[in-house]
């Protein structure tokens, strides 16, 4: 059995834990201390109330994570794999977008725009728009994991 001392707010708390679990307990204590610090000047007069509010912040993040909603909760190893997949998808879509932009322009069509130039192919414009929307949606999903 080991003992770790956690400092949360102005107080320190000794916590018993199994050997080898010290770093994990310290990391959990740091999370609580971070949420405690969010109270700022709104701290309650009783320390137990302040710790309760810090615990409520953490419980809220946990509830959001369990619902599957992106929030500020840290990702699990599965979340890291999902983030890697999303990053790879973003890279693929960005490469496809670059290739589409570098492709030779389509042959001119008889239709002209308001300024007298040839109008771009509607199919190309729609494809580029679809690629841009996919990239934005994937980036938003990735940001939600962070």
Task: Lay out the secondary structure.
Layout: E1 2-8, E2 11-17, H1 22-37, H2 47-67, H3 77-102, H4 122-145
Antiparallel strand pairs: 1-2
Helix pairs in contact: 1-2, 3-4
Produce a short descriptive summary.
Helix content is 60%, strand content 10%.
Descriptive keywords:
146 residues, mainly alpha, 2 domains, two-stranded antiparallel sheet, 4 helices, elongated
What do these coordinates show?
60% of the residues lie in helices and 10% in strands. It is mostly helical and 146 residues long. The protein folds into 2 domains: 2-67, no CATH class; 77-145. The protein has a two-stranded antiparallel sheet. Strand 1 and strand 2 form a beta hairpin. Helix 1 (22-37) packs across helix 2 and helix 3 packs antiparallel against helix 4 (122-145). The longest helix has 26 residues, at 77-102. The chain is elongated, with a radius of gyration of 26 Å. This is Cell division protein ZapA. One of its GO terms (biological process) is cell division.
């Amino acid at each position: 059995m080991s003992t770790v001392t956690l400092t949360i707010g102005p107080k320190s708390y000794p916590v018993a834990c199994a050997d080898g679990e010290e770093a994990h307990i310290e990391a959990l204590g740091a999370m609580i201390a971070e949420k405690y610090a969010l109270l700022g000047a709104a701290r309650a007069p009783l320390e137990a109330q302040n710790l309760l509010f810090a615990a409520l912040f953490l419980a809220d993040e946990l509830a959001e994570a369990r619902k599957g909603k992106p929030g500020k909760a840290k990702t699990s190893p599965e979340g890291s794999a999902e983030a890697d997949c999303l990053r790879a998808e973003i890279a693929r879509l960005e490469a496809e977008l670059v290739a589409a932009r570098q492709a030779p322009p389509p042959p001119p069509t008889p239709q002209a725009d308001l300024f007298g130039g040839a109008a771009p192919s509607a199919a190309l414009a729609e494809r580029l728009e679809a690629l841009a929307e996919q990239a934005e949606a994937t980036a938003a999903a990735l940001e939600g994991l962070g």
